[in-house]
Amino acid sequence: MTASTSSSLLGVYGVIVMDTNLNPSVILVGLCRKEIRAKSREINQVRASSLEIATMEPKREVVVIVGAGIAGLTTSLGLHRLGIRSLVLESSDGLRVTGFALSTWTNAWKALDAVGVGDILRRQHVRLYWNVTTSLITGNQTSITSFTAKGKHGGHEVRCVRRKLMLEALANELPSGTIRYSSKVVAIEESGFSKLVHLADGTTIQTKVLIGCDGVNSVVAKWLGFKKAAFTGRSAIRGFTELISSHGFEPWFMHFFGDGFRSGAIPCDEKTGYWFLTWTPTSKEEELEEDPTKMKQWVLQKLEKMPRNVRAVIEKTELDSIFSWPLKYRSPWELIRGNISKGNVCVAGDALHPMPPDLGQGGCCALEDGVVLARCLAEAFTKKVGDNEEEDEEKEQYRRIEAALKKYANERRWRCIDLITTSYIVGVIQEGGSKLINSLRDEILAPFLAGLLLIKSDFDCGKLHSS
User: What is the pTM of this model?
Assistant: First the structure.
């Protein structure tokens, strides 16, 4: 034992030595031995743990999907329906329901039907029949559009679906153990024809395919070379209200346009309603986003000319059911020049195409992504590789996976560019902000803008099976 160790131990136990009749040196030796044994055990545990981590084989998976949101769960369920197992890594400790609800248009229902959960959600939500727009500047109704019209791909179908129920419907159809919660990805590493995914808890997973569905701040998108999503300069406030009795809403999508803002209210079912407001905040208004009470009061002031029954629902919204965030988008130029896929890695959902909410297509587009991606990827695994050497088989399968993801990227690229660009332009016009734009919006463009919602949702991503 060194002198410094004896000194430190004597400092710790000096009071005990002074207050006992035993030989101080005997006590000191005993205490030192006890301390040394404890330290030795601690060091051995650390060494054993470090050795275990160093020698631990990575967990092996065929497909790893980062993010248990709409795109991630739809992709996983699509693959499951086609007989391919996947592992979904979710950073939070449960399904995330930020946003409360989403308008679910015709294209989304085709995707939900493709993975087999459409009817589950239809039973839980009312069907909407009209889109009614009103100017809060003049008080006049500016357009009314039927949601029962037929498009190129059949009749239209629109509902406002609770995000929680959609995620649960998708997750409940997956095999037990598919979703791994509290699994934050911190690094991605090349490993031959595979990728190594490193998690915050020290776990390493080796996978043949890596799919990033991890939202606007995607780790996988960053690995592919995408920049951070750009700020539109606009923000949104969303609210969700659950009532004991009926809210009295008609089965309509109610749009309200004001001077520098756009708002809406939609029933999910007979007792729950969803509302939103988008605007371009001043620096002072940005501070409101940190205080739900002030934010709610500000919204009610903005919407003072809104119909009484709609204001009543907003007034009854609990503070923890009001959420505000800045609206972001991915530049279309990035999708033209960037890598949606690279080798055996790709992105989907908001990791690929964050967009303003003005067409209501963010979540719908994510559902499309999931179906198309599952269909393309299944082709890579259902075709036989051949009876070559193991390394040749790995190389051939990697080549098939790469080709499948390129096919997915090419199929989705221009659809995403169209929706992002149109959403951005429509959002600027709908919010108004000048007398000229307000006048054009309310008196001339209102029917056209309402019609765009149906035009852009008149899309069929196809079935899971290509045949």
Answer: 0.87
